[in-house]
Amino acid sequence: MFNALLLQAAPQPAAGGFGMIMPLVLIVGIMYLFMIRPQQKKQKETQKMLDALKKGDKVVTIGGIHGTVASTKENTVVLKVDDNTKIEFNRTAIATVVVDKPAEAPKAEKKSFFGKKANKTEETAPAAASETEEK
């Protein structure tokens, strides 16, 4: 009888199931969050930029040609690259729309490492001295 008990195998837990699928689901979820979703977002932004092209926009093509949009068609864009030179490109060949920088904005106050305003005594002292001299 004792030998019969020893020969019986211990009950095995069910193989597979939820414990085997969970790591696979986790890996697919991480890949979606870090690879697929950002790529889809970038494609939507690029398509939005291409749809918003209008006459007069300054653009750069994938090949590095800088030009101004002379006219747009359904699938193509005509760029003016020189006074008398126009080239027709596929819309998908436009890499970026160049945005001219606005006039120089006033500089922000400098802050020190700890978030406090930096002392500007060197800059303000000569200005104060020149103001008193003018009066």
Report on this model:
By secondary structure, the chain is of the alpha+beta class. The chain is 40% helix and 19% strand. It is built from three helices and five strands, in the order ααβββββα. The protein has a five-stranded antiparallel β-sheet with strand order 4-3-2-1-5, with helices on one face. Strand 3 (76-80) and strand 4 (86-90) form a beta hairpin. The longest helix has 34 residues, at 18-51. The N and C termini lie far apart (117 Å). The model has no long low-confidence stretch (mean pLDDT 79).
Keyword list:
135 residues, five-stranded antiparallel β-sheet
List the helices and strands and how they pair.
Blueprint (H helix, E strand, L loop, with lengths): L1 H6 L10 H34 L6 E4 L4 E7 L3 E5 L5 E5 L3 E5 L22 H14 L1
Outline type: flat
Could you tell me the radius of gyration in angstroms?
33 Å
Query: Which strands sit side by side, in order, in the main sheet?
Result: 4-3-2-1-5
Share of residues in strands: 15-25%
**Main pleated sheet:** 5 strands, antiparallel
Label the structural class.
alpha+beta
**Secondary structure: helix percent:** 40-55%
Which H/E pattern describes the elements? HHEEEEEH
Q: What is the rounded distance between the termini?
A: 117 Å
Mean pLDDT: 79
Number of helices: 3
Total beta-strand segments: 5
The parts where pLDDT drops under 50 for at least 5 residues are none
Concise description?
By secondary structure, this protein is α+β, with helices and mostly antiparallel strands. The protein has helices at 2-7, 18-51, 121-134; strands spanning 58-61, 66-72, 76-80, 86-90, 94-98. Strand 1 and strand 2 form a beta hairpin.
